[in-house]
Automatic annotation (TrEMBL):
Stated name of the protein: FAD dependent oxidoreductase domain-containing protein
Superkingdom of origin: Eukaryota
Statement: the UniProt record of this protein carries the keyword Magnesium: no
Organism: Sporothrix bragantina
InterPro entries, per database record: FAD-dep_OxRdtase (IPR006076), FAD/NAD-bd_sf (IPR036188), MTOX (IPR045170)
Domain FAD dependent oxidoreductase positions: 9-385
Length: 429
């Protein structure tokens, strides 16, 4: 298929993938793009990237994603749209002395993958012990018991809500239309039945308005199965808890500049945000599902997700005691659950929906919790799909999992298995 520049394109979801795609298509000269978003603001509070910051790392155990992440990092470094939101403070990838062999093994694989890739020459600092880590992160006041790993300086973090806001602004400048709130929340996709399948012709929003489109692209993150129910067997909505510590401006200044740190067996944290002086920290277990009738979908309201399970609090304090004990007992604020769309093997799904004709319906989903860093390039892949008319990269195709495989349960690079929120005690703090 070829999509003429003036044909109507509908993008559902103004999160990381949807905004990037709208921006790319508008930059290519498409003149009739409408983005529908269920929040009444962009950046959307329902987006998995509605946060102070996200890690922009370039190493993956899988060299395919390393290449994509390296493309993305070059954009974060140089593209005037993205660069103001990127801080190349480095990525410290470590384990504690208590890490299980599985987690230690994952660290060794990451380490081996960067050591073998010349793109990282000159950026790597081995950190075999706590003394070496204190050298690259003198801000850490804790003992770092048994910590070992490496620092990769070709990495850092991006201020994710700010970046989404910037891309939103750039889209508006390029003439992309947005409908937000009830006027933007898609209730259902609309189809025309034809011989040989059905053709998606657009969507109806909660307020009853119909948006007609030649091509509809669903980029609804963890909510994708609400819009495209056929994808449910491949996707499980999974969330993690995010918390913050409010520092004073001078405390924040003292901690300025340490690398984004992932302690693979506990969690990850960022330097204090320069504007708000909040330090973000996240326990990185296997994540939580919200199972309803065998399907995990995110909570439908924001208020339901404004907490983290007790286990997250416990692990967050455990991590802080090892690294920044002077703030380990501070109140944890702005706690919330953050949702992603998990696939069984962490591969994205960027493809047309089988059974729909004329390439009328595509999904851009399955971010599996590692999609934000790809924001500057994900729209290129969406545009490629539309221009080529099919997904040439096998790994990003729509998959029809065999029934006996069941739902995605355990992703190898995560420390522990996924559990359901219903079985997790809530913190009373
Ligand atoms: C705790 C946590 C930490 C993370 N850390 C990192 C990290 O360090 N590095 C990294 O690269 N990635 C990270 N991620 C992952 C990253 O946030 C996601 O991969 C990314 O946001 C996925 O983009 P998306 O566009 O698919 O979904 P989202 O950004 O979630 O956007 C989906 C959008 O669709 C909208 N929507 C849903 N349903 C509808 C509907 N019916 N109608 C209209 N709009 C709708 C939503 O409101 C939302 O705005 C993290 C995620 C979490 C939860
Ligand atoms: C965009 O497409 C819609 C749906 O087909 C149509 O109603 C509208 O007139 C188009 N707008 C422009 C500027 O072409
Ligand atoms: C990482 O790789 C380097 C170079 O091969 C090696 O010297 C170091 O011990 C490794 N570190 C870890 C934590 O695996």
């Amino acid at each position: 298929m070829s999509l003429a520049k003036d044909e109507p394109v509908l993008i559902i979801g103004a999160g990381t993938f949807g905004l990037s795609t709208a921006h790319k298509l508008a930059s290519l000269g498409h003149t009739n793009i409408t983005v529908l978003e269920k929040d009444d603001q962009v950046p959307s509070r329902f987006s998995g990237a509605f946060d102070l910051n996200k890690i922009i790392r370039s190493e993956y155990i899988d060299p395919f994603y390393t290449e994509v992440a390296l493309q993305a990092i070059r954009q974060w470094q140089t593209n005037p749209l993205y660069q103001p939101h990127f801080r190349q403070v480095g990525f410290l990838n470590v384990v504690t002395g208590e890490a299980s062999p599985v987690v230690q093994n994952a660290l060794h694989k990451y380490n081996a993958s960067v050591a073998a890739n010349s793109a990282f020459d000159g950026y790597l600092v081995p950190c075999p012990d706590a003394a070496a880590i204190h050298k690259v992160a003198p801000q850490f006041t804790g003992d770092l018991p048994g910590w070992t790993g490496y620092l990769n300086r070709l990495a850092g973090y991006a201020q994710s809500s700010n970046a989404m806001q910037a891309v939103y602004g750039a889209c508006v400048q390029l003439g992309v239309k947005f409908a937000l709130g009830k006027a933007g929340e898609v209730d259902e996709l609309l189809y025309e039945t034809l011989t040989g399948g059905k053709k998606c012709i657009g969507a109806r929003t909660k307020d009853g308005k119909v948006y007609q489109a030649r091509t509809t692209i669903v980029a609804a993150g963890g909510y994708v199965a609400n819009v495209v129910p056929a994808i449910a067997p491949q996707i499980s909505a999974v969330c993690w808890g995010v918390s913050h510590i409010q520092l004073t401006p001078s405390e924040s200044e003292q901690l300025r500049g340490f690398p984004v740190t992932t302690v693979r067996d506990i969690g990850f944290f960022f330097e204090p945000d320069p504007a708000t002086h909040k330090l973000k920290i996240c326990y990185m277990g296997g994540g939580y599902t919200n199972q309803k009738n065998g399907l995990s979908v995110p909570y439908s309201t924001l208020a339901e997700g404004e907490y983290v399970p007790e286990e997250d609090i416990r692990q967050t304090r455990r991590l802080l005691k090892q690294v920044l004990p002077h703030i380990a007992d501070r109140p944890l604020i702005d706690k919330h659950l953050c949702w992603v769309a998990d696939t069984g093997n962490s591969d994205f799904i960027i493809d047309f929906v089988p059974g729909t004709t004329d390439n009328s319906l595509a999904v851009l989903s399955g971010d599996s919790g590692h999609g934000f860093k790809m924001m500057p390039v994900i729209g290129n892949f969406a545009a490629d799909l539309l221009s080529k008319g099919q997904q040439e990269l096998h790994r990003w195709r729509w998959r029809e999992p065999k029934v006996e495989e069941g739902r995605p349960k355990h992703i190898a690079w995560r420390a522990t298995a996924t559990v359901d929120l219903s079985s997790m005690p809530r913190s009373k703090l």
